[in-house]
Write a structure and sequence with these properties.
570 residues; Rossmann fold; Fumarate Reductase Iron-sulfur Protein, Chain B, domain 2
Amino acid sequence: MNGERKYWTFHGGVHPEFNKEQSTRQPISPIKLPKRLIIPVQQHIGAPTEVLVASGDKVFKGQLIAKMAEGELGAPIHAPSSGVIGKIEKQAVPHPSALDALCIELILDGKDDWGKSQLAPYADFSHIDNKMLFARIEETGLVGLGGAAFPSSVKISASKNTIETLIINAAECEPYISCDDLLMRERADDIVIGIRILLQLLNPQQCLIGIEDNKPEAIAAMQRATASLDKVQVCTIPTLYPSGGEKQLIKILTGKEIPEGGIPLDRGLLCHNVATSYALYKAVVKGEPLISRVLTITGDGVKQPQNIEALIGTPISDLIAQAGGYTTHAQRLIMGGPMMGITLKNDNSPMVKASNCFLVASTTSLQQANSIHASQPQMPCIRCGKCMQACPANLLPQQLYWYTQAKDFERVSEHNLTSCIECGCCDFVCPSHIPLVSYFRFAKSEIRAQKIATKKSDLSRERHEFLEFRKAREKHERDEKRRKHKAALQKKKAIMAAKKKRTGENDEENPKADAIKAALARANAKKAARQTKDSHTNTSDDDQAKADKIKAAVAKENARKIAREAKKES
């Protein structure tokens, strides 16, 4: 179905120098096996995978080397070729954070041997149950190859409601990147098989393939490949950056807008990248997991710009070497395009599932391509409003910039910063050379950090409140226990007093009471006798001491008399 249809426009957009012809002069180059691969264990949105291999293990091509934990969001990782596992440690990876990540090193043996790892092909998938097709997508590690790397199985399984329109994103609006263009030119039939699998799984009312009009050969190839499919229409859209953005392409093709915080599924829409459709074909029909992809190596910093089908984990230096090596103009290395790509420090890191382009260019060519004047000083904002006019998300970049400078992140959030797709259109048109996207990325990171801090603070407060509640509860339980114990004692005393009152009215007739009284009397008598004896004993001792003292005095006096008389006689 290739008839005429109505198209809509989105707000803003720009026309940079696209520079795609540099890498489209030759066909897709075949895979050249490198000596080693560096395979990050997280190449998707979600949680890291669980490593299943150890250093020294021999693995075959397509073998599962890292799996997802039960219930976690993500996609498994497979060995792109056969060889021996080397180091498993943190290494540099192409990521905006510039932080190292856990990687599996695979030393290739050059055999590219599948062993028994290749899955059974579903050549006639139309007779395969949808549950089996979905399981195949899940186990082969498919993710969105347009850049987001969202697990395809999760995206498909989330579409429980009726899908009105399946959109295949083939716009490829970013300057320099041409891998989807070459893929459609050379492998349109395989891409369409992947689209047919999606049609079987989702059963949408229609399928729209959006391609910018600067790709005439790709448009013709896709039209030929879809000529027999009634539900599918190839849509030629105007070349305007960023028409490849999900919300922007939806607006162009359907006229529908996705509200802030909403997702396309809420409007009965689902988007998949054209390269993802090709990977889906390979997973189902050929039984191959996602272990390779087509990507662009381009820019005036490489000698032979081209598109290469390379193994996941191939070092960037090997890709540059396959493109003829560096030229004297090589000054910056970017993963992605000049508008939304991330600058890399060196070429030691590997390509990953989300890598669609490595751009090596001079600063001058980048300035011409995207109007980012990195070498020119930032000037004060003149409030010209050009950024607002160019913003495809219909935001107010100028206000966001002022509030970010003031670190008033509450106001930044109120101005819908989360809707910013960081496309760089505001940077492109700013006459003051203000790196607005950099400010917005900073604001997003700060808001995320504040949310994390608030979450931790709330958790700490909840823990403290629970601790205080537990202390109060335990004190209440102790008080209640003491109260019950005291009440039980009082009750027991009252019972005993009542019993005593009943039984104490005629104690003389109570044998037990008489026995007790008699025992008490005997004890008192014995005590009195002991006291009397002790008194007598003490008295006798005193009298004897006095008598002895008198006798001694008398004897002493008699001795003195005898002494006096003897003296007189002499």
